[in-house]
Write a structure and sequence with these properties.
The structure is a homodimer of 160-residue chains.
Chain A lengths: L16 H24 L3 H12 L5 H8 L3 H13 L3 E5 L7 E5 L1 H22 L4 H21 L8
Antiparallel strand pairs in A: 1-2
Chain A binds a DNA duplex (30 and 30 nucleotides) through helix 4.
DNA sequence: CCGGGTTAGTTACAATTGTAACTATAATCG
DNA sequence: CGATTATAGTTACAATTGTAACTAACCCGG
């Protein structure tokens, strides 16, 4: 009853987790990006920067990068755009003049207070699909998978 | 005990579902993309095309687009690359000479049989984080959220 | 059977994103 | 100190991706 060595398991894209994650993430991000752009003239990277600066003012660009899972170039570009539109203020740290000190301006804070209800409402509508207990389970699973994915790192980098 | 009308709920990026989905999807995709590129010289779009053609030969480009959640331009580019490297054969449908008939070549099938074990192994390692019952629950949740996200469409397009 | 509209796919161009090199400042160590 | 190395951030360039225009083939009503 053995299977020939050449037999391989089938792989249907629609059941393949990485594919499904990518499609879902894309659907959600595209929807939000459109809304952010239309209503607030913000890109997703810019929205992320605003979101962290609203909660933690005075961060450096590197610190923002850490908390937004963006690289420093993406942060630099997003901040440049936000500074141009008067939503973020850039200063230099007195103790280390390489480091920037980023804060939202009044206009930046206003964008934040206007966008948050939209963002949360979208999330609420999406999660309305799930019962409350399912929501917390799903959130926990995401945390675990994220940790695991980081541990796995560059897919079977050396092994397999 | 009422909250002032101006109070807004906080939004921490790290608890915001769209952000978390994006980060997880990105981590996973980056890992796989690196492995596909290094080991097989394939991009993710190319891998997707190979995956569906292996299971369903003879599809048109539009049909491939449907099943890979890619747009027709992305498919066109992926197929062009695969044709160049001799992994996909393009023919024209006799009944409709606009439509292409795409099939894997022997080399294309070989790539598929070599890449599938890697892809499934990566998925297995990721899902090893979850108990079997959690895995099926998670898969079901993804299906439901995907459906819901498509229904919601362009984030609160007109409403809110 | 022929003009208007439609569909499949490609090509051209614009915008975004990633990678690498660079500038300025700071830290380390002989 | 002064030379070397490291870090923060920007700029320049390459690659990817998205958008729009285009070509070729088909379809359909008159």
């Amino acid at each position: 009853m053995s299977v020939p060595a050449s037999a391989i398991r089938a792989l249907d894209l629609e059941h393949f987790l990485p594919y499904r994650l990518s499609v879902l993430s894309n659907t959600v991000s595209t929807a939000l990006a459109g809304a952010y752009a239309r209503r607030f003239g913000l890109s997703i990277p810019q929205w992320r920067v605003i979101a962290v600066l609203a909660r933690t003012p005075g961060l450096s660009a590197a610190a923002v990068a850490e908390r937004t899972a963006m690289d420093k170039v993406a942060v630099s570009r997003a901040v440049a755009g936000l500074a141009r539109s008067g939503r973020v203020r850039r200063a230099l740290a007195r103790s280390d003049r390489r480091r920037s000190v980023l804060t939202l301006t009044a206009r930046g804070r206003e964008v934040y207070t206007r966008i948050v209800p939209y963002a949360l409402e979208y999330e609420r509508r999406l999660l309305a699909e799930l019962a409350p207990s399912e929501q917390s389970f799903f959130a926990a699973v995401l945390t675990r998978l994220q940790r695991r994915a980081v541990l796995l790192g560059p897919a079977g980098a050396a092994r397999v």
